[in-house]
Amino acid sequence: MKFGPVPVAEALGAVLAHSVQVADGRLRKGVTIGPKELARLMVSGHAQVIVARLEPGDLHENDAAAQLAKAVAGPGLRLTKAATGRVNIIATGPGIACIAVEAINAVNAVNPMITVATVPPHHRVDCGGMVATIKIISYAVPADDLQKACAIGSDLLALACPIHRSATLIETRLAPMPAAKGRAAIQARLDRLGLSLTPPVIVDHTASALARAITDSPGDLVLILTASATSDSDDVGPAALRMAGGRLVQFGMPVDPGNLLFLGKAGHRPVIGLPGCARSAALNGADWVMERVICGIDLSPADFAVMGVGGLLKEIPQRPQPRSSIGD
Question: Of 3.40.50.360, 3.40.50.720, 3.40.50.2300, 3.40.980.10, which CATH number belongs to 166-305?
């Protein structure tokens, strides 16, 4: 591609690099100068304009953006029409963004004029939310480079949609009944992904009572909010899971707030032991786990281990021993 000023008489077929005022309005940058545009420039007295001229082997920005978007976008996503070298990649429903990070990095390394910007991996998006944008920075790029970018892989971006439709929240009690705000906060989280919450289940804070409730739960997903925080893999929640014939996958996570979470399975149903901070609407580790599990993303101990980088979500000054003093 050649870029720079040319006499107006030589601008036919070139791409206008900057918007230009003409007698009857304005020619916007990015327009291909045809006979009508050329006449408007000449009538307005312009002697020269700054243009981009495609050379053999170049691909127009809109064509390049459309081709790359089609290559990288997978299930659950739709594409906007290419304009000014940009295509947005949009979620067709609520879900979790699945991103092949290394492959996207490789695409962005082909040519600095070929770019893909995405939301963070496993980011929850609503229907109509943007998952990524493809932007060709220059007015054209070498077709060979675009082909290299497309060849890195297909379906590098996808939307994991909810596979569960209902959840049962089991709350345990010690003396008073659980406060309503906990259930309300969980309901709000489920609403975002289209899950219904089955009728309330409140049981004594004992492993045996909780185990029976797990077994009897009607929901596709079982959530447990205990009256006292789970402090060990043999505490009431995990013990009840095993008593109900389930297995513990993970206790604890390197996300704060949200450390005291456990994940398990009872038959085919996921079971999530929620930390106390899940009673708040504020983002915490439980959100990351619930969203992924609801969307059918399996989590292993290795997946939990890599959540620590970026896992410091918010400092809460009211906690004992606040972590604000360097060297404490």
Answer: 3.40.980.10
